[in-house]
Specification:
By secondary structure, the chain is α+β, with helices and mostly antiparallel strands. The protein folds into 2 domains: 121 residues, N-terminal domain of MutM-like DNA repair proteins, CATH 3.20.190.10; 124 residues, Orthogonal Bundle (Helicase, Ruva Protein, domain 3). 40% of the residues are buried. It binds a DNA duplex (16 and 16 nucleotides) through helix 6.
Length: 271
DNA sequence: CAAAGGTCCTGCTCGC
DNA sequence: TGCGAGCAGGACCTTT
């Protein structure tokens, strides 16, 4: 489900409701996510004040004075603020009960998500230490991408989806940004000019910014913190559009599997 | 052969 | 032959 725009939308949605609040209680209903939820979290967080809600790539970072709670939504995770009397639903695995008696709950049917605790400086955590730059930061541009791709041969789509290259670009936005750049998804990363990498970096940034402004993309089950869907699905040009006409040239959009991910492209526009 | 928005980890291949 | 880097595929889950 969530790529960077959906995670950022979630962050913006929950931050005003939970920042500055004390944790009244921590509820772990299903500890077996991608990694086990630490079983001492309730003691660690009880009575502590949540200072801020940050994001690094697709990781949400809830900071406390004595450490950071790391949340990842995996493929099917979502966070909601609910009232104290809200019904517990299937796949509600984790919950922070807040000082105002409301709750931040994590729902994640596929359980690829994660809830972890670290007292290290966050940039040193093993999951975050080798992440590439934020796509919306100045460190991310065409020269950087070109440098990353020119000595490798993997498909460019795989390159931009690797978190060590750049964070936050998942399957939807990889497909969309490559279409907007007129670059074929399977083109080897070392066969793309610096100029075309500049276009690609620009389009990645633009598509992510647009998607955030639309509240993300709702395909099947992503809902924002307030229960509304994201509206960027209406702006998708190729993702999920197999056999539909290319919005540029009318040729049928093709789909294929690349590295076990569905890939959509216009065979005429993209080279 | 089902596919789904993520991504870490393992083990293979290749070049030095 | 050994080593490291790059790479492909598996693994983790449930729902439609």
């Amino acid at each position: 489900m969530p790529e960077l725009p959906e995670v950022e939308t979630t962050r913006q949605g929950i931050a005003p409701h939970i920042t500055g609040q004390r944790i009244r209680q921590v509820v772990i209903r299903q500890p077996r996510l991608r990694w086990p939820i630490p079983d001492d979290l309730p003691q660690l967080l009880k009575g502590r004040k949540l200072l801020s809600v940050g994001r690094r790539g697709k990781y949400l970072l809830l900071t406390f004075h004595h450490g950071t709670l790391i949340l990842h939504l995996g493929m099917s995770g979502s966070l909601r603020i609910v009232e104290a009397d809200a019904r517990v639903q299937k796949h509600d695995h984790f919950e922070l009960r807040l000082g105002d008696d409301r709750r931040l709950k994590l729902r994640d049917p596929r359980r690829f998500g994660a809830v972890l605790w670290t007292e290290q400086p966050i940039s040193q955590h093993p999951l975050l230490a080798s992440l590439g730059p934020e796509p919306l930061s100045e460190a991310f541009d065409g020269a950087y991408l070109h440098g990353q791709g020119k000595h490798r041969r993997i498909a460019v789509k795989q390159l931009i989806m690797e978190s060590k290259t750049v964070v936050g670009v998942g399957n939807i936005y990889a497909n969309e940004s490559l279409f907007r750049s007129a670059i074929h998804p399977t083109r080897p990363s070392n066969r793309i000019s610096a100029v075309r990498y500049q276009t690609l970096a620009d389009e990645i940034r633009k598509v992510l910014v647009e998607a955030i402004s639309q509240g993300g993309t709702t395909l099947r089950d992503f809902l924002r913190q307030d229960g509304r869907p994201g509206y960027f699905a209406q702006k998708l040009l190729v993702y999920g559009k197999a056999e539909e006409p290319c919005p540029e040239c009318g040729t049928a959009i093709r789909s294929k599997s690349l590295a076990q991910r569905s890939t959509f492209f216009c065979p005429r526009c993209q080279h």
